[in-house]
Each structure stands twice: as C-alpha cells, then as structure tokens.
Write a structure and sequence with these properties.
The complex is a heterodimer of chains A (about 80) and B (about 325). Chain A has about 80 residues and is mostly helical. Chain A contains 4 helices and no strands. Chain B is about 45% helix and about 15% strand. Classes of the chains: A mainly alpha (about 80), B alpha/beta (about 325).
Chain lengths: ~80, ~325
C-alpha cells in the first residue's frame, strides 16, 4: 500500500466509525477538528487502523500528528 | 456498550438463602445491611449491591460485578470504598458464588485508572493546610495499603475470576484487570501504563502482577514507553485469554465464568492457589517506591499540568 491508498483507507475507516461524510474529509484536515473527536475516540480510530492494516502504531509516534496525510505517513513507515 | 443489569433469582427458597447469606456476609464484614442507602440496596430479585461506582448481582453461581462510575471508572476514594465492600463480600464467601465476573458499563472502557484530579486536589489541599511531607506520605501509604488489600483479595479470591474489558484499560484500571484469573478483551480494548508521564510508577500492584503473567521485556516496554497495546497484541503476548468482537466481551466472559462453575469448588481453589502465587515482596517494594517517588516536585508539576491541560489528548503520553 502506498501513502495515497493508506490515506483513502484511513478516511474510509474514520468516516465509518464517526458517521462523517468521507467527501468532506480532506487529506490535510486536522482529524480531531474534522471528525469532532477527542483523545478517547482517536484511540478507537487507532485501534481500527491497526486491525484493518495489521500494523502496530505506538502512541508516541502520533505526537504532533494531526492531519490524515501525516497519519497515513506514520502508518506507511510501519508497513 | 451500556449493558443492562439482568437480575435473575431462582426459586423463593434460594432467594431467602441468598439474602440470609448476604446478611451474614455483611455482618462479618462489619457492614450493617439494615442501614438504608444506595450502597446496601437489597431487594428480592434486585442487585445485592448497588452503589455509585459498583453494583453486583448473582447470576446462577456467578457473581457479576459492574463498574459504572462516569467518566471512566476512575479509582478514587468512592471507588475504593466500594471495592473494599466487594472485597469484604468476597472474603466472606462471595455469597456462595463459584466465579466472579467483572466488567464495565461505561462506553469508554473498563477503567481509566487512578482519579488523578482527586490525587492532585488532595496533595495540594494537604500542602495548603501545612501538612508535612512525612504526613502526606503516610496518608498516601494508607491509601495504597487499602487499594493493595482490595487488589490482593480479588487476586487471591478462592473462586475463578474473569474480567471482560473494552476500550480504555489504563493505569489503575489495567492493574484491576490484572487481578483477574482470565481476561477476555473486546477488540476495542487498549492496555497502558502511562504513569511515567506523571513521574510515577503504577502503584496498585500492576507491575508485579504483569511480570507474573508475561515476559519482563514486555513489562519494560509498557512501563518505560507508556504506549498502549491493542487487544490483538495483548492476546499475542499472553496477557489476554480471548479477543472477541466489539460488544461481545461480556457474553464471552460469562461463558468462561460459567465453565469455571462446573468444577468442584475446592478443586478449583487448590488449582488456582498452585497456579497463581501472590508476589508479596515485590508488591511491598512497589508501595515503598511509589511513596518515595510521589514526594518529588516533578510529580506535582505533572499532575498540575494534567489537571489544567486543555490538550485534547491528555491520555497520550
């Protein structure tokens, strides 16, 4: 999977979990703001991503990560 | 994931016997069941205990304990007091139950751990009152002795104990889950020891219990990075016995608990005592270390930062 494919999957999972229109989520949006989620919900998304992509994402690698694109980059580095 | 409390008692003689057992248990625990109040609600067909943090009820031979204190079952003085009541009930024979099942009715998870706001407020209030460092240390040690007594009782209960966990299983919540003989995890569960960000180590017996169950490399990873593990990873390292789909942990845990009740009680008790020794010396050392670390300025600074933080991710280390 390349970063664009990961990004597409990420947006798909996020929109499904938080019942948000995927077309309204841009790659450079702040996902906390775009999805209206808090830290607990961000963990839920992280768990979904780990399960769907069979990858482990240490929490500390998400420090400073706020956009879908940056998150996709973190995942790509671990695939 | 709110789970409706089911109440099911058998025939009338069984209800009478159960109520008599409860009265006797409470009497032995120093609790007067005749005192009215939400913490000792007893009614035919109703829960044995219904408090503001815990409730428990007998389902056949299984004692089902539900944690239900918002926002996420933080363990402070209220939760501790009710856990002590539960421990007293277990020490008194758990009303004849052959298994104990513990789960959370809070959507966000099993438990977010110690009540840090209460700890912060307590430390600063005592300092403002002019309490000496030694006096505060004694009080913290008293709290630790109480919570350790509860955790050790649950850990060594002479019946099989099962924890059904989901969502946040952090810090003291993780430590509570680790007292169970078997952990069944919902896919949403995440386990973490984030205490180092507060300048502390886990203080409710978590590290000695975790070290008993998994390799020390895993213990160091969790302790020294503060990162969280998902349910699949926790299963892979042997921490969790079963991983089930979202919303299915309670059902699966009931299956485990019911299976445990099929064995003769004394057989199960002897087997558990053999397989699950209590790491007493290490638990004592943990309490000493926690109190020693709590006196350092870095802890108050970290607690203040946590309490005053408007970061949307305060739980990420």
């Amino acid at each position: 999977m390349n970063e664009e494919q990961i990004l597409a999957k990420l947006v798909e999972l996020a929109s499904a979990r938080f019942k948000t229109d995927a077309s309204k989520l841009g790659p450079d949006d702040d996902f906390f703001a775009a999805l209206g989620i808090d830290s607990f919900q961000a963990m839920e998304l992280m768990t979904d991503l780990e399960d769907a992509m069979d990858v482990e994402i240490p929490d500390y690698e998400l420090q400073g990560v706020t956009t879908f694109r940056a998150l996709a980059g973190v995942i790509e580095a671990r695939l | 994931m709110s789970v409706p409390l089911k109440t099911r008692f058998g025939a009338w003689p069984a209800r009478v016997a159960a109520r008599r057992a409860l009265r006797e248990a409470m009497g032995r625990a120093g609790v007067d069941p005749r005192v009215p109040g939400p913490a000792r609600s007893v009614s035919a067909g109703g829960p044995y205990h219904s408090g503001s943090a815990l409730r428990w009820v007998h389902e056949g031979e299984v004692l089902e304990v539900t944690l239900h204190r918002a926002p996420c079952n933080e363990i402070g003085l209220t939760m501790l007091a009710e856990l002590e009541e539960l421990a007293a009930y277990v020490r008194a024979g758990a009303g004849g139950a052959k298994a104990l099942l513990m789960h959370s009715a809070i959507d966000r998870g099993f438990s977010a751990g110690a009540d840090l706001r209460e700890l912060h407020a307590g430390l600063f209030a005592r300092a403002a009152e002019g309490a000496s460092t030694l006096a505060v240390a004694r009080e913290v040690r008293g709290f630790l002795d109480r919570i350790h007594a509860v955790m050790d009782t649950l850990d060594q209960a002479p019946i099989t104990t099962v924890a059904a966990v989901h969502g946040v299983v952090f810090g003291g919540g993780f430590e509570l889950a680790l007292t169970a003989d078997v952990i069944v995890a919902d896919k949403s569960a995440r386990f973490a020891f984030p205490e180092l960000r507060l300048g502390l180590v886990p203080g409710f017996g978590g590290i000695p219990r975790l070290r008993r169950d998994v390799g020390n490399a895993v213990v160091r990873d969790l302790l020294l990075t503060g990162r969280s593990l998902n349910a699949s990873r926790a299963h892979a390292i042997g921490l969790v016995s079963q991983v089930v789909g979202r919303g299915k942990a309670l059902q699966a845990a009931r299956g485990v608990a019911t299976q445990a009740t099929r064995f003769e009680a004394e057989t199960a008790r002897l087997a558990k005592r053999f397989a699950k020794p209590l790491p007493r010396a290490e638990l004592e050392r943990e309490k000493d270390l926690f109190v020693e670390m709590l006196g350092r300025p870095v802890v108050r600074e970290a607690l203040t930062k946590f309490v005053e933080s408007d970061d949307v991710r305060p739980y990420l280390p």
